[in-house]
Design brief:
The chain is an alpha+beta fold. The chain contains five helices and four strands, in the order E-E-E-E-H-H-H-H-H. The longest helix is centred in the middle third of the chain and has 14 residues.
Length: 120
């Protein structure tokens, strides 16, 4: 095997090149490692590969610094009042209230490991 920057130029069978800095666009030779395929798959399964779980974690982090609370959102969704009245009461924009009512904002994320797999 030829070597470039102290790294083998050929990847052995059942091995994979991975970037250790988790930046998939990184080209730094010091950040590249050769790992067994089984370890790579195991690490990826443990990592945040379920996008719905990741989205729920991001949403939860954003909500911790949000103006509205979960109780405010429930009240907005249950209310029959006009958007502009609710927006003024809670100090948010009218479009934000509409998004909450339409469930495009403050969506309820499921953190089930089976979420997103579809009914079969």
């Amino acid at each position: 095997m030829l070597q470039a920057h102290g790294k083998p130029s050929e990847v052995p069978l059942k091995h994979k090149l991975v970037c250790t800095c988790e930046n998939h666009r990184c080209v730094n030779a010091d950040h590249i490692a050769i790992v067994p395929l089984a370890k790579f798959v195991r690490d990826r399964l443990v990592a945040n590969t379920n996008h719905q779980i990741r989205a729920a974690k991001i949403a939860k982090a954003r909500r911790q610094s949000a103006k509205l609370t979960a109780d405010d959102v429930a009240a907005i969704r249950a209310s029959d009042e006009a958007d502009h009245i609710l927006a003024e009461r809670y100090g948010v924009s009218r479009s934000h209230v509409s998004g909450i009512q339409a469930r495009t904002k403050w969506r309820d994320h499921s953190v089930s490991p089976w979420a997103g797999m579809g009914a079969r």
